[in-house]
Amino acid sequence: MQMTVSRTICAGFLVLITAGTLLLLLPFSVADGSWNNPVVALFTATSAVCVTGLIVVDTGTYFSPFGEAVILLLIQVGGLGYMTATTFLLLLLGRRLGLRDRLAIQQSMDTAELAGAKSLVLSIIALTLILEITGIFLMMPVFMGDYGGGYGLWLSVFHSVSAYNNAGFSLFPDSLVRYGRSPLINFTVSLLVILGGIGYQVTMEFITWLREMIQRRRRRHVFSLHFKVVVSTTAVLLLLGTGVLLGAEYTNPATLGPVSFPIKLMMAWFQSVITRTAGFNSIDIGGMSTTSLFLMIALMYVGASPGSTGGGIKTTTARILLVCTRMVLQGKEEVLCYGRQIPASRVLRAVGVVVGSGLTIIGATTLISIGNPEFNFIDVLFEAVSAFATVGLSTGITADLSTGGKFVIIATMYVGRVGVLLLMAAILGDPRPSAVHYPEEDLLVG
Predict the structure, then answer these.
(1) What DSSP character marks residue 95?
(2) Which of 128, 22, 156 lies closest to 120, judged by CA?
(3) Domain range holding 359?
(4) HSE of 230 in the Cβ direction (CA atoms, 13 Å)?
(5) Total Cβ atoms within 10 A of residue 360
(6) In a domain? residue 436
(7) Taking the model in full, what pTM does it have?
(8) Is residue 442 part of a domain?
């Protein structure tokens, strides 16, 4: 079987998961010094590499400092992406990038450009380190004030890396519920999650615009269509999520009911940001209303943006389909957005992503429900979408799933991280162009 680019990427993630599982199996990784449960090790390694955050044991008490460090390393490599991390290692070893390496980077990052792969990888690593270090320094006053110098620093490092990579792993049993009223923790984590979720290209384009503004260049900066779509769609989803969660949970005594309005607003904003693909929580997810859970399922399904550390069908995919719907209602045959025509190939890709993702979630929900009939449908659907979109939020059923249910979640996390289309290309092989053109015939739709 030919080792195509898509197969290389999918196999690379499997290698990372296998290596992480073996490390987490060791007695050094477990707090009590015993050999780890293989299912726990595999589930945790998959969740870390796929930057999901779903857990079957409490990370901070079950694993030793060595085990926590392994999880953190898996999060970092998984967040950067297999090809980005591997390419960086090859550059450190002095190896030149070949055409295959550049194609793999292009496909894994979902970029249109093939040139400049080396500078792209180096700038991604640099930006990641700068933002993660900034997050560490911002959280240090709170964590070091509560837990002392050494452990407070480790908490800052772990949560900063986990937040920027949209992983959602926490060393606290209640995630960040205990810091639900801390503005510094809430807004630092929110900012890291947003920056990690909008994608490297958008962040660098904003930095370029900011530099030109500071230098007062007369030339007007023209933002790309990708930037406009990602930023506008992300802003709308964040504000919509905040408003609906605030209204739905305003009087709920298990969530926002007991706190003041400013704290309600901050918690609603935090949960709206996190729901997009990061897995932390500052309120009890299991105590939320069905309205809120259904909204969060929709937000998780959309997820982050292309080229980011997050999952989901991506903001651009959702926007393309919404624009298509608008064009149909207006009786137009071209898909236009911000004065630009979207290629038909991108529209077809968006349809494929949505259909493939939907079928994956339906399959996972069905299999989990069959093996775990005691759980409510909304909880199972929430778990399946959270796993596929690599979010990591849960209503509290993850640890109680059957062994078969846990393996379904493991598979779903993997599919969500590598992507439905990439996985299908790895299984079926890269598509070959056809010189045959078939006659066109119309049919009824809708």
Answers:
(1) P
(2) 128
(3) 5-428
(4) 25
(5) 20
(6) no
(7) 0.90
(8) no
